[in-house]
Design a protein that fits this description.
single chain, mainly beta, five-stranded mixed β-sheet, four-stranded antiparallel β-sheet, 2 helices, 28 strands, globular
C-alpha cells in the first residue's frame, strides 16, 4: 500500500511540474514563428565608413546617408554615385511623386539642413527650418510637406508644414509641445499623426482630412505604450509598432487588436511595408539580440529572417523596387539574398 501511495505521489508531482512548465508565459510553444536561415548578404563597396540610413524613390533608386555624403544607386546597390558632399546625413526624405523630385536631408540630431527640388543636382538651405529633431517627413499630392519633430523645450516639438517645397516652415495646430511619434497617409490622402502630449503624458492619434489645417483626436493610448512607427496599408488599415508589440485598426482608429506573437511581449520599432501588405518588423524580446521578422499579408504568420551577425542597432529598413529587403545595421548595409516572393514560394 505504501508503494502505491509513493508511486501516486511521484506521478502527481511530475504531472504538476509539467503543467506548471506549460503555463510559463515565456513558453514559445503556443505560437512559434517560422525561421528562414541564411537570409542576408552584405552589400560591399559601399562608400563611407558609417551608413546611417537608406531609402528609395518611386523609380527604384536607392539612397544612403553616410558620414561622408549622400549617395544614390540605380542598380540596387551594385554601384553608387555621390550626389552631395553634405555630411553626416542621418535622415533622407524622397518625394513619392514622379513629377516632384524633392530630396530633404537632416544631419546631427535630426536637424533639417538642406533640400533639393531637382533630384539632387543642386541644394538649397531653408530660410525657416523646423525647430527640433525631425522624426519623419510626409508629403501630400497637392505639394504640402509635413515634418514631425521631437519635443525639446516650450518652443519646439510638434508638426510643421511647408507650403513652398521646404523653403519655409510653420507650426500646425499640433505644436509646439508635442513629440511626433509617426506620420502616415491613407489612400484618401487623409493624414494620421501619433504623438506624445507632454501635458497629459499620453500617446494620442490624430486625424486630418483637411490637408493638415485641422485635426481630430481619434485614439488615446496609455502612456505605457511607447509608439515607434505608424504605417497604413493599401486596405487603409492603420498599423502601429510599440513596446507592446504590433497593433492594427481596421476601422480608421476606432478599435485596435494585437497581431502575432503576443506571448513574446515584443518591443517593436522600425517597420516597412510593400505593395502586397507584407510587413518587415524590427523586434526585441526574449531573444539574444534583436530580430527582423517578415509578417505576411494575412498577419498571422511570422518569419524570423536569420543570417545577420549579432544585432545591436538597426537604423533603417526599406523594401526596394527589386523586392529585396535592405537593412542598415550597425552602420553597415545588408540585403536579402532573394526577393521576398522567391523566398516564400
Amino acid at each position: 500500500m505504501r508503494k502505491v501511495t509513493l508511486f501516486t505521489t511521484i506521478f502527481f508531482l511530475v504531472l504538476l511540474a509539467a503543467c506548471q512548465k506549460d503555463e510559463n508565459p515565456l513558453s514559445y510553444k503556443i505560437e512559434p514563428y517560422k525561421v528562414i536561415n541564411n537570409f542576408w548578404q552584405p552589400v560591399t563597396e559601399v562608400p563611407g565608413q558609417s551608413i546611417y540610413t537608406i531609402t528609395s524613390d518611386s523609380d527604384g533608386n536607392l539612397y544612403i546617408g553616410t558620414n561622408i555624403g549622400l549617395y544614390r544607386s540605380s542598380d540596387f546597390g551594385n554601384s553608387w554615385e555621390k550626389i552631395s558632399d553634405l555630411h553626416p546625413i542621418q535622415n533622407i526624405y524622397i518625394s513619392p511623386y514622379h513629377n516632384i523630385k524633392i530630396i530633404g536631408v537632416s544631419g546631427h540630431f535630426g536637424t533639417f539642413t538642406h533640400y533639393s527640388i531637382d533630384g539632387g543636382s543642386t541644394w538649397l538651405t531653408p530660410t525657416i527650418s523646423p525647430h527640433g529633431s525631425i522624426r519623419q517627413f510626409i508629403m501630400l499630392p497637392t505639394g504640402e510637406i509635413f515634418a514631425g519633430t521631437w519635443f525639446h523645450d516650450e518652443s519646439a516639438g510638434g508638426l510643421y508644414m511647408s507650403p513652398d517645397t521646404c523653403k519655409t516652415w510653420e507650426f500646425t495646430t499640433l505644436g509646439p509641445g508635442f513629440s511626433i511619434k509617426g506620420l502616415a497617409l491613407n489612400s484618401n490622402n487623409d493624414l494620421y499623426a501619433a504623438l506624445w502630449h507632454r501635458n497629459t503624458d499620453s500617446i494620442l492619434l490624430f486625424f486630418s482630412n483637411t490637408q493638415g489645417e485641422s485635426w481630430s483626436e481619434i485614439t488615446r493610448f496609455d502612456s505605457s505604450r511607447n509608439i515607434s512607427t505608424v504605417l497604413i496599408n493599401n486596405r487603409n488599415e492603420i498599423i502601429i509598432s510599440s513596446n507592446k508589440g504590433i497593433i492594427i485598426s481596421r476601422d480608421y482608429g476606432e478599435s485596435w487588436e494585437s497581431i502575432g506573437l503576443e506571448q513574446y511581449e515584443l518591443s517593436t520599432y522600425l517597420m516597412a511595408i510593400d505593395n502586397k501588405n507584407n510587413l518587415i518588423v524590427e523586434a526585441y524580446g526574449e531573444f539574444n539580440s534583436p530580430k527582423i521578422f517578415l509578417l505576411l499579408d494575412s498577419y498571422d504568420t511570422w518569419y524570423a529572417l536569420e543570417g545577420l551577425s549579432v544585432l545591436r542597432d538597426i537604423y533603417a529598413i526599406v523594401i526596394g523596387l527589386d523586392r529585396h529587403i535592405y537593412v542598415v545595421k550597425d552602420y553597415e548595409l545588408y540585403k536579402s539574398k532573394e526577393p521576398i516572393d522567391t523566398v516564400l514560394n
